[in-house]
Amino acid sequence: MSLKATITDAGMRAMNTLHRGVLAATGGRLGSRLGTMDVVELHTIGRSSGRRRTTMLTTPISDAEKLVLVASKGGSDSHPAWYLNLRSNPEVEVTVSGETRKMRARTASPEEKDELWPRIVGAYPGYARYQRKTGRDIPVVICEPRDAD
Known about the structure:
eight-stranded antiparallel β-sheet; alpha+beta; 4 helices
């Protein structure tokens, strides 16, 4: 891993820890939205460790049937760890406004991404900048409710 990637990853971990702390300290009154987007806690299982991992993300599109995540990593040339984890184990949990839902995550097809992308960029134009910044195709993830376990 390059020094730049190591610094980027460390910065993102620090921001996640700080954000979780703000949410906990304020009972969710601060930090539950970023602009027009809900902030979510994505709970995955580490692909190597097998341990539960939690990442703070935003969702540009969410409703009762689906929640959309963007694996942008700020336009980095590598996928975020949370995305690699859910590719290995798509059974995830997502916490929004204090409510945790069991979901199944999948990468949107190219056709689905084409349909969703204008809405995603409409919610946060920075996603378009991130896509221009990197040579990789930034994955769009669709999380849908799991059947009752």
